[in-house]
Amino acid sequence: MIYLAPLQGFTDYVYRDSFAKVFNTVDAYFIPYISVKNNKVPNKYIREILPENNTQNRVVPQILAKDAAEFELLENDLADHGYSEFNLNLGCPYPMVTNRGKGSGLLPFPEEIYKILDHFYSSAKGELSVKLRAGFKSADEIKDVIKVLNQFPLKEVILHARVAGQLYSGEIDENAFSYAADMLKHKLVYNGDVFSVEDYRYKQNKFQGVDTWMLGRGILMNPFLPHEIKGIQSTPKERFELLHTFHQTILKRYLEVMDNEGNALNKMKQFWIYFSYCFPNQRKVLKYIKKVRSLNKYGEIVKSAFYEISC
Ligand SMILES: Cc1cc2nc3c(=O)[nH]c(=O)nc-3n(C[C@H](O)[C@H](O)[C@H](O)COP(=O)(O)O)c2cc1C
Q1: For residue 130, pLDDT beyond 70
Q2: Is 89's C-beta closer than 6 angstroms to any atom of ligand 1?
Q3: Whose CA is nearest to atom 13 of ligand 1?
Q4: Number of domains, the chain
Q5: Which domain range does residue 167 map to?
Q6: How far is the CA of 199 from the centre of ligand 1 (A)?
Q7: Cα of 196 from ligand 1 centre, angstroms
Q8: Dihedral angle over CA of 209, 89, 53, 215, nearest 10
Q9: CA 12 – CA 114 distance, rounded (Å)
């Protein structure tokens, strides 16, 4: 199975919905985290979680919370929106988040994680999974965290085996992943740096008990990666058409849902940060896209980028 990772600012509901409509090759979609502000769920998250914007088979919302009270507030709001599966974020590495004791900032405090899980399971409104890093400062932290996770009937655990300070680069700690695979009682999902079929095969060989893979940047850079991993054949012409349709679907949706053309264009510029890797002259295409100020000019650049891969 392949899951689409949550990437704040990239895998929003427009992206997820368009991906599902055009490619339909992933088995679950994780919504980037939602969190509490001033004891409320901020309005900016509403469109992300509305059921009508999340019609795929399995969509899992993610909760970023510092304690059981925050978790419960978000869980209740999500349950009111019809969700019965939740994911707890124990991975976000950014100081703005970790300084407030959230995301990977909770990893050095397994007793706090215990309190959140204990509270959830005392009146569970559904199923819960956890997405975590190997540690905040050190991958040793995972040992005590696993002891806590093993005390609860989690649906699954998704591990991105880096520590917070690494953000999204540097070596994945394969020993930490193997340790988790041995010690966890739960199903373990692999996440991190699967950018090609070769990467996938290498990890599959290394972690033979794993059958579910969460992919983030790999899919953003190559939406055909799940096709390739699952062995779904497609001709160059089909690939070209799917890629083009995907782009057009996303553009149309942003133009419909954003307040104005400028904001839609900004969303497309963000999308191209990774999408540009589908094109042989990635840097040049991205440079032109970043400079664009009008929809007309944008259309011209996109047309010539697609033209180059069509011949
Ligand atoms: C820009 C960006 C935003 C992210 N947002 C989230 C998020 O909201 N929740 C989360 O659990 N992980 C988030 N992540 C981490 C990814 O889900 C994933 O764990 C990480 O990118 C490693 O997987 P990959 O190598 O397949 O991309 C984010 C990563 C990036 C680069």
Answers
A1: yes
A2: yes
A3: 7
A4: 2
A5: 2-230
A6: 18
A7: 17
A8: -40
A9: 30
- Model confidence at 124, pLDDT cuts 50, 70, 90, reads confident
- Looking at the structure, do residues 50 and 190 belong to the same domain, yes or no? yes
Q: CB of 91 closer than 6 A to ligand 1? A: yes
Q: Note whether 130 and 170 are same-domain residues.
A: yes
Q: What is the pLDDT of residue 220?
A: 98
> Where is the domain boundary, 203, 230, 257?
230
Q: Residue 61 belongs to a domain with what CATH number?
A: 3.20.20.70
- Ligand 1 atom nearest the C-alpha of 6 is 17
Q: Check if 32 has its Cβ closer than 6 Å to any atom of ligand 1.
A: yes
Cβ pair 87, 63 in contact under 8 A: yes
Residues 84 and 178 in one domain: yes
Residues 240, 220 share a domain: no
Q: Are residues 217 and 255 in the same domain?
A: no
What does pLDDT average to over the chain? 97
C-alpha–C-alpha distance, residues 89 and 63, integer Å: 6
Report CA Rg, the chain.
20
Half-sphere exposure of 161 (CA within 13 A, CB side): 19
The answer, yes or no, to whether residue 239 has pLDDT greater than 70, is: yes
